[in-house]
Amino acid sequence: MRVTAAVMPRPNQSFEIREIELDAPRAGEVLVRIYGVGICHTDLVAAEGRYSITMPAVLGHEGAGVIEDVGPGVTKVKPGDQVVITFAFCGDCPMCCSRQPAYCRSMPALNLSGKRADGSSSLRDDQGDVAGRFFGQSSFASHALALERNVVKVPEGVPLEIAGPLGCGIQTGAGAIMRSMDCANGTSLAVLGGGAVGLSAIMAASLREMRAIILVEPSARRRQLALELGATHVIDPATVTDVAAAVRSALSAGADYVFDTSGLPGVINAVPKILAPRGVFGFVGVPPASAIDLGPPGTLREMMRGGFTYRGIIEGDSDPDVFLPELMTLYLKGQFPFDKLITTYPLSDINRAVSDQHQGLCIKPVLLP
Fold it and tell me: What is its EC number (predicted)?
């Protein structure tokens, strides 16, 4: 079928709105008409050519919409169901079988190759194959193919147009607090970076009734929103000479948990000075390999002396069939207002949305095909 998609023609170019061909669903696949899709930092990294996916490509991996068709063998959903699409996973490896699909052994191949697991392409134009299946969906488009395994039903009352970011950025931030680090009631947290992931962590920390929740973020608008969402303190790094000292002024013993979303080497190097003894550092922001390692002078010694745990986090350790319904239920109860993070744009304005995000004019842009 012919669909409309935002295509990245070559790395570091602007997206182009094109008509391309999308396969009908095969066994285990579902066709989703996209009602809304978030723009995630991972999409922009892929657009720079830093992953294995080739160009031209259709990116997008925070989609939500309505099932229009299903392939043979699909029983989880049916046409007409409203769904959010999350990352792809095999369902069979030891990690998947232990309900840790974010660490699926086939994660890179299923999410970053631009092809189905059998090596075939699901998208093409007049010049040949177009890379798709980005994170199991490629949802910068009017329609996307996913596996029944990586869709989750959206209950009535959750706005379908803005539900897509639950499938990646929002579950990553919330899951970091509620699953990966499993932050305890009455403990303290410092969040480094106030984008959609960081602010989702703030909301989750508030739900966990942590006694101190600190956000380090240069944007005044985001700091104010963090206070509305449950932060107890905010710090503008541009106004302090030592971020660690600023955190310690609020938490003299340090933070029990630190969660980094920035990936900035200077910020990450300050973490050992922020953590309380036996503190946990969770990180999703990853700097260039040449910019940082575990060996800056004294870092390993500080880690050992403090008894620190460093914890890499993928997708908030989410088991989507369990965690996404939990987040949606919290939203319906008024306890997880992720809609406050979202600004919508037509799909045709994708390049403006990307620019606005770069400039800090929005937190989580969502495209409406």
Answer: 1.1.1.90
